[in-house]
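Here is one chain, start to finish.
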Amino acid sequence: MGSFRDQRPPSLAPYHFPPPVPYFEVLGRPMDPQPAPLIHINGSPGVGKETVAELLTSIIGDDKSMLIDVRSLDFDSDTSAHHKHLLTPEHPRYFSFDVGMESVDSIADTRELSDTEYKSPDTDNLIRLLSKPFNSSRTAVLPAYAPDTVAGRAFIRSLEHAAQSSGRLFIPVTLECASPERIRRTLSLQRQCSYKIRRQSEPAVSTVGTEVVPQLVVAADSESGQRKLATSVHGGLSLDITSVNAFAVALQIVEHVNGCRQERDIGWCSSSSAATTPTGSMEGEKRWKGSR
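Its structure:
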C-alpha cells in the first residue's frame, strides 16, 4: 500500500455535471446590449432635416449609426443592395391621396385609421431592417416630413410600431424654423442640386449652361397656411433651429438621446430589482446577508 501522497483522487470524467449557468441568465438579461434607438427627425420641407441627420450620424459614428433615406424609392444607390427604400407621405406612392402642403378635406383629415389600414407594406421592411443582428447596435436615424394629416399621423404610428417590434427605443425629434428662413433654405442652390426626389410643389430647377437657377414658386407654406407637424405619443424633443447651427442641433439631439437611454436603463434596473425582491425593498437583501 502506497503512501497517502501517492494516492490520487478518482477521475471526474465519468460524472456528467450540468454546465454552469451564465450570470446573465441568472439576472434575466441577455449578454448583448439593448438595441440602439430609432430617431425620427420631423420637419417641414426646407427646414434642414437631412443636414442635421447627416451630422448626427457623423457624430455617432458611421459604424454605430445608419441613415435611412425613406424617400429615394426609385434612386439606385449603394444601399439598395442591402434593403429596399421606404416611402414617406412626401412621396406620391406612399398613399393614394395627397398629404402635401395643399389643403385637404377636413372631414377626411380627421377620420381615424385602423391598425391594418395605417400599416403600409413598407413597415414590415423597416422592421426587418431594424431587426437584423448587425444593425442592432447601430442607431437608426430617419429624417422624414410627417404633416399633421391622416397619412402623416399614420406614418408616425408605423414608426412607433417598427421600433417596438424591433425592441428599439423610439425618439421623435421635431425641427421648427421661421417661414422666411425656411423659404430661403428651400431656394438655396445646395438644396436644388440635391439628388433626392422632390415634390412638384417645391421649387423646380432649370439649367442655363453650367449655372443652376432656382425657379421661384408661390410659398404655399406661409405662417398663415403652414401645415402642422404630426406628433408622437412619446413626446420627444422640439427644437427651433431658425438661428441655430446645424451642428449644435445635432449635439443637442445626441444629449437628448443619451438622457433617454439612461432613463430606460434606470427603469429596467428598477423593474429588475423589484422582480428579484418580492417586497420591492432592501429587506430581502438584508435577510440574505444575515443568513450567511
